[in-house]
TrEMBL record:
Organism listed in the record: Fulvivirga imtechensis AK7
UniProt cross-references to Gene3D superfamilies, sorted A to Z: Glycosidases
Full protein name: Uncharacterized protein
InterPro entries registered for this protein in UniProt: GH (IPR017853)
Domain of life of the organism encoding this protein: Bacteria
Amino acid sequence: MLGFIFIIFSFVLYHNPLAQQVGYDEISRKDKPAFDEFLGVNSVRESTIEMIRDQYRVATYHRIFAMDAYLFTGEEIVVDRRGNNLKVDLSIPHDEYPNDKMGFNPSKGAGGFNFDEFLLRMKENGLHSIPVLARNLLYANVPENNIINVWQLPYDNGGNPEDPMSYKAYSSFLYQFAARYGKNKFRNEGGTIDPATLKLTDSNEPKAGLDLVYAIEPGNEMDKDWITDKEQMTPPRMAAFLSAAIDGHMGQMGPGHGIRTADPEMKILFPGPIDIKPDYILAVRDEILKLRANAKELGYPVNPFENFVMTAHIYPFKGGRAQKGEGGEVIENTDIVTKSLEFVAKMKEAFDGCEVYLTEIGYDKVVNAHSQLGTPATLSDPVGSHQISTYSQAKHISRLIMNVFATGYDKMFLFTLKDPAMIGHSGYKVKFSTSGLIRKNGVKDHSWFAVNTMRHRLKGFVFDSLEEQGDLRVMRLKNGEKMAVVTWLTSNSDATWKGYTLDLGDNYNKIKLIKLEDNQPLGRESLLAEDSETVELTVEEFPKIVIAEN
């Protein structure tokens, strides 16, 4: 009787795709991303080449924090630091940037950090860098007491945040960055960049067209609405900022302003909103079209979003925080899937098939009972000191990745690669304090091994279908004649489904099982069957990968 039930179950599962129930088929997948191209991580600037070669193997694409605007210009004027609030000395000449005496400082900025060398090492190791150029220049929008919050909106002193021309300083900074690290070269090298537009500190050699960054994101979570008015980008403000950032507001700022002025081919990421917010982005679009109504007369596009990437942030919890207590929220019961499906569809329709990235998502490895963004942990999950469960984090991140992969995003970035704070530090329970795949001292956590295995084992595979039956999920991926099947249960109660029959549909010469829960660089692999159409699996909450080859 039990065997009969499983036979019927397999038939229902195979013919009951989740796509028909929640809209997966509504996403156009003409250009399906391969899994390894889809997977990215949020990273930090790193000075140790061993860290780059080893720790960064979990993803090709890295969205890099700690490359804030103020690190490249103006550190000389800082006289005191109080967290995000900096006291600045404005007696040092800084007017009319980029003609000021400080200038752009890429190779000896941030206390001597060499950004040229760091980005080159990333590229040499096969990694794609997306600098997040967030936080303000230290001489834009400075209050009378000269104590500036670096998250303030970067409009010029005395300016209007809804006027594109009030972002002249920041637009010039973005030009300097894109000119150096983009693809466009100096005029005498076949490009269009005039060397006279580069305004560097004396210790920096003029360079252009180094081709070291994949894209630029000129800001981060600028739409946040829980702080002061000086730090919130409403749609009219964001429209003004982006028009300035893209091309110096249709070239009206003159030479040396705007990302596309420096490199017409540069990808630009919409500054990642705090949530999945299609209406916010569409409102920004409407505002920017108004601001640029006369763009054609000036020789610029009215709609400047060509080659733009639309973005979102979201964390796998209802209401933005974990459910307290044993078990916690089931990923699949949150609204990530439905909101993502809608978001991707709306963005691709509104912006002519643009790329869409989920640029922040992930779990804190502190368990849910002790952190508002903690990973759900069952009673049997190992929990170490400070209420940290790296096993739970790995289990839920693996499932999270699979769910997001099916929703149509072109890329997804886990938050974060490396812990922003030492595990065990006094602030270890603060959200994100221990969210990384790797600890600050370089030790790899369980999630690093799981994610690394997923990236390498599923290299070249694209999404095919996602099916459900109760708590069971079965995702199929294809890579030529190869098939990969990922199975997992959506409960947080140590559930197990024994004897599930997986119907592969065709004969395969070799069928392998790969387990992600092992702390091994590429997971434990075992041969399941040869020349078989079906295999029996034990399905658990931690995903398993079956790879069948012809």
